[in-house]
Specification:
49% helix; mainly alpha; 7% strand
Length: 165
């Protein structure tokens, strides 16, 4: 959004900055402002809508928030405990880690809930088929999210319940 308002013109080695006012609706409210609707519960725009450049420290800890969930393959409930530890340690210092830690934790809680359903259905053929599929899906999505976080992308897991906001 920032780049919509500030245009950088580089001409002949000289950088000049010009301001373009935001578009207004008929009442004079800026249409992109989430608070312009008068809704007191409207929050700020999500990080995904804004083009940020994150530091290498942000990206490293964001990646670790996702990769720490892989400890669940070795430690019982490590898939939830790992992201909680990273999120609690860095959520106040790094906003990117706060966002990605919550996202990783939400995904791992969803995986845990799905694992409980699969565990209950293990006595059937469906449960026997779904158990390895769930494990592979969780592994692939966790690694993919870690790679995206390391690239500085605000990643959102598809089709999950976001219990922690």
């Amino acid at each position: 959004m920032f780049r919509e308002f500030v245009l950088f013109n580089i001409r002949e080695g000289f950088a000049s900055m010009s301001y373009t006012p935001p578009p207004n609706d008929l009442e004079g409210n800026y249409s992109g402002n989430p608070y312009a609707s008068g809704n007191p519960y409207a929050g700020p725009p999500p990080l995904g809508d804004i083009d940020y450049q994150f530091s290498s420290d942000d990206r490293l800890w964001g990646m670790l928030a996702h990769l720490s969930a892989l400890s669940g393959y070795v430690i019982p409930f490590g898939n939830v405990i790992g992201p909680v530890i990273v999120w609690v340690l860095k959520k106040d210092e790094l906003p990117f880690v706060d966002d990605q830690g919550k996202e990783s934790l939400n995904f791992q809680i969803n995986v845990l809930l799905a694992a409980l359903v699969v565990l209950a259905s293990l006595c059937t053929v469906i449960g026997i088929v779904l158990a390895p599929l769930l494990a592979v899906y969780a592994l692939v999505m966790t690694v993919y999210a870690a790679v995206k976080a390391n690239q500085g992308v605000v990643y959102r897991y598809p089709f999950i319940l976001r219990l922690i906001r």
